[in-house]
Amino acid sequence: MFFFLSSGAFLGWSLGANDAANVFGTAVGTGMIKFRTAAVLASLCVVVGAVNEGAGGTETLGDLGNINAIAGSFTVALAAALTVTFMTKMKLPVSTSQAVVGAILGWNIFSGYDTDYSILSRIVGTWILCPVLAALFAIGIYKLVKFGLGKIKIHLLTLDAYTRIGLLVVGMLGAYSLGANNVANVVGMFVPASPLSDITLFGDVTFTGTQQLFFLGGIAISVGIFTYSYRVMQTVGKDLFRLSPETAFIIVASHSLVLYLFASEGLRDFFMSIGLAEIPLVPVSSSQAIVGAILGIALIKGARNVNWKMLGGISSGWVTTPVIAGVISYVSLFVMQNVFDLSVFN
Amino acid sequence: MASLLKLSKMLKSEIDDFLNLVSEAGILFQKGLELYLKENREEFEARLKTITDYERKADELRMNIERQLYLKTLIPENRGDVLAILENTDDVIDTYKETLTKFYVESPEIDNQFNDLFLELGDSTLNSIEWLVRAIRAFFKDFESVNDYIHKVAFYEHECDVAAVKLKQEIFDADLRLSRKMHLRYFAENVESISDAAEAVSDRLAIYAIKRQI
């Protein structure tokens, strides 16, 4: 069974290595927070977020494709992982969330499972909504922070101390949201075919099989954070974005709020209770949320340095990533079934 | 986090102390110049001694602030700018001390007819430094108003230039030996150089203030 989970673990490792940098990259890269502090906090929050609120996104992915054989789950996760690796090697913008959806669609086509297009359209809608919302959040928080700083006249050194605390808090929220929102990418496809049974802890605390999967997914992400995210954080913090710590705070806060918005069942229920539209709980791209937030800040500052070509590349990734993942998934499932004689669907 | 806030508080207080020393050294310099022109040697030497103490204290404060900023990796985006501000402002207090020391060592003979212009030059110098200190304080607490203060620094630096030109003209128009004329010009230029140093800091400050905008 653990062999079959390995492809999900690889996806989790890659997610931890890359996306933790979105959350703590600037803080660590600029030396405001030590890597060890960031790694420990991010890992803890990712696991708690995954176990606590990972169900929402997983349910939506399950509705899109109910992968009912463990070998099928393994292949779908492997196809998504191969897509992410291939596209990263080719230096193409890629999102794990979009690769997973493409791989699930590949399974649907291969197994003859009817794809629910209303769910698919909701998922695709969130891909566009995610960076747009992140941009709007960033603009709102930017205006708020600028107004506040203009009024309070805070000393540079006090601001530095508060920014560090702020980066730590939004970083923890970001890691929690990342676990809650993105764990579905890592283990979501294993849930319908999960062989794990419920465990009762301390007499009356039930740790369900699904929560155990989320826990393992969270651990895989944490391993990625500890083993490889330092390099990515240094790149993000020093070379790629060159953000001031205050701007980094705004961007990470926007990213974290957007990811949380698409992960929290509590928030969804609250919005519905006050008559607002239902928020689809879908795994979204952490990197695209960050890019959206940066774009929001760039737009409010006059959009002088916006790399529209890069944005075009990201938009094209919304189509190319799922298509490539779908093709790899279909071919891999064919190989698994016909070469290795494994049952990839029931 | 509590220790971080404590450290910030301590450094804020040290930066304030450093700027207080720069500001007070300006007043002491003007007073020292006045005493020298009145030939009150004893009081003049007392002022020189105080300025020398201030210069040493300012050096110690500056070095401690710089060390802490680097050791604790504080204000990563502005650290270099803050260091440049502190070091260049420290140069101002050094110039105060050096100029008064030159008066002490070389004892230039200044005829009464030049006293008013020397004092006018010293006055404008003091004003330029006062506004520079305000601009630096604003850089830390209210960077949007830095430009208002920088404008005043530039104004008083120009006043210094005008007073210095006038003083040098009067020196060279006077019936003195060329060696004395050159000696006096040298002192006029020394006093004038303090406001030039202030303007150099304020020019950098204008750029650093833009960088502080989020």
SSE inventory with pairings:
The complex is a heterodimer of chains A (346) and B (214).
Chain A: H1 2-29, H2 35-53, H3 55-64, H4 70-89, H5 96-111, H6 117-152, H7 156-187, E1 199-201, E2 205-207, H8 209-240, H9 245-261, H10 265-273, H11 286-300, H12 308-338
Antiparallel strand pairs in A: 1-2
Chain B: H1 2-37, H2 41-71, H3 79-106, H4 115-141, H5 146-173, H6 178-211
- Measured by DSSP, the beta-strand proportion of chain A falls in under 5%
Q: Number of folding domains of chain A?
A: 1
Radius of gyration of chain A: 20 Å
Can you write the helix and strand succession of chain B as a string? HHHHHH
Reading off the top of the CATH hierarchy, the class of chain B is best stated as: Mainly Alpha
Largest interface: A-B, 23 and 21 residues
Number of domains of chain B: 1
Strand content of chain B: under 5%
The averaged pLDDT of chain A comes out at 88
Give the low-confidence spans of chain B. Answer: none
**CATH fold-level label of chain B:** Methane Monooxygenase Hydroxylase, Chain G, domain 1
Short description:
Chain A is mainly α. Chain A has 12 helices and 2 strands.
Structure description:
The complex is a heterodimer of chains A (346) and B (214). Chain A is an all-alpha fold and 346 residues long. Chain A has one domain. Chain A contains twelve helices and two strands; from the N terminus they run H-H-H-H-H-H-H-E-E-H-H-H-H-H. The mean pLDDT of chain A is 88. At the A-B interface, helix 6, helix 7 and helix 9 of A face helix 1 and helix 4 of B.
